[in-house]
Amino acid sequence: MKKSILLLAAAAILCACGTDREHTLKVYNWSDYVDVTAIEEFEQWYQEQTGEPVKVILQTFDVNETMLSKIEKGQEDFDVVCPSDYIIERMLKKDLLLPISHDFGDTPDYIDQYLSPYVRDCFDKLEGDGKNANDYAVGYMWGTVGIIYNAKYVTAEEASTWDIFRNPKFEGKMFMKEDARDVFSQVLIFLRQDELKSGKVTLDELMHDSSDQALADVEAYLNEVKPLVAGWEADFGKDQLILERGWISLNWSGDGVWAAEQAAPLGVDIDFSFPKEGFTVFFDGWVIPKYARNPKAASYWINFMNRPDIVIRNIKETGYVSCNAAPEVLEAFTDDSYEPVDLSYFFGPEATAVRTNRVLYPDRADIERSAIAHDWGDRTEALITMWSRVKGDDANAMTVIVISAVVAVLVAAALYRHFSRKKKTHRRRR
User: Residue 396: pLDDT band by 50, 70, 90 thresholds?
Assistant: First the structure.
């Protein structure tokens, strides 16, 4: 409700301002992906820092490609947008982004000061036809792909490998995420273990493989596991695990944390695994489109989003993990109830034994087995075609999906009555 009121008010302001785009900042973001109370605070802060007024107009999208289509066609003059990693690559290659200015006068540069070195290194690996992604994008939130599992029925050893999906012991109790890119990447990592172990290929190199052979091998694997999985799910797999209707789900780390939190009061033990073969990490980041009319305010917005107190508020409001490595962020999410993990790769050398949730902040030993998946460019159609073939003739799975979706609605209603709305779902933004 408060978001709707905000959007209506913003629209009214924009109309009142007429063509005064110089003092308007148009933000295009995922829904529920920022603490909306910080928007008014940004407007006040911006005027204090620059002496200029600004009004923020927030619009939301739910699919990366929908956002990209509007930017490509120049239909919307958004000033700042928050796409996912592979879309950042695509926008760089298509020359759709402006460099982010760090000219903030006397205002501290929170981006340079606090952005995690790990995130910078990952963005260095994004492809941009000669452009460095760190010049055009600033990481906002991030996460990993892994396996959510019910520890009552599945051992940690069984959940330590992607090959669990070929185990007939779990027939009908497993869900695959409805995401062709993420599923393809994890399966390919598993299938290329010999090459990875022998050093014939690195994990980063493997994540560039979109060859016909790679597609054929992954398709063969998926066809082998298809009779064993309950279905391909967009967002109800974690609910099925909470109800113990399913035991295993290829899923995202944030969903794993959410499922564990919601299942615990019900006496259900949900855990998350980073498979030993390797896995992918993903990022969303702020960018300034080439058609932006207010790039100055956009750069200030990105800087403001990296101010430690705003970072902490956004994490608590959205339930995602920030790319920001400020000491205040580390302190805010330290919890003595957890075992220590080595987060020196993310927060610096002093963070070798931090007591925090290892699912949201993986240990160095786990993160060293990870890599970023990349944009497929012209090969994307081949990936989607393969994915459609795998699922297209699976009538039983589709039936399960329909039934499970209905059950998920009932589950959601039950959970709504039992749990506080303060906890957000940790869905990956696709």
Answer: very low
The reply to whether 31 falls in a domain is: yes
Strands (E), 68-182: 80-81, 97-98, 137-150, 174-177
Q: How far is the C-alpha of 192 from the C-alpha of 214, rounded, in Å?
A: 9
DSSP-derived 3-state class of residue 244: coil
Phi and psi of 4, rounded to 5°?
A: -65, -40
What are the tens digits of pLDDT across the range 356-381?
Answer: 999 999 999 999 999 999 999 999 99
Whether 348 is in a domain gets the answer no
Q: Which of 174, 140, 170 lies closest to 310 in space, CA to CA?
A: 140
**One domain, residues 76 and 164:** no
Task: For 246-314, give the DSSP string.
Answer: -SEEEEEHHHHHHHHHHHGGGT--EEEE--TT-EEEEEEEEEEETT-S-HHHHHHHHHHTTSHHHHHHH
At 237 the pLDDT is 79
* Same domain, yes or no: 238 and 254: yes
Q: Which domain holds residue 198?
A: 143-281+377-418
Is residue 50 domain-shared with residue 167, that is, in the same domain? Answer: no
Q: What's the CA gap between 115 and 297, in Å, rounded?
A: 19
pLDDT tens-digit map of 138-168: 999 999 999 999 999 999 999 999 999 999 9
Are 312 and 412 within one domain?
A: no
- Domains of the chain: total: 2
**CB environment 271-308: b (16+ within 10 A), e (fewer):** bbbbbebbbbbbbbbbbbbebbebbbbbbbbbbbbbbb
Instruction: Assign residue 383 the CATH number of its domain.
Output: 3.40.190.10
The verdict on 192 and 74 lying in the same domain is no
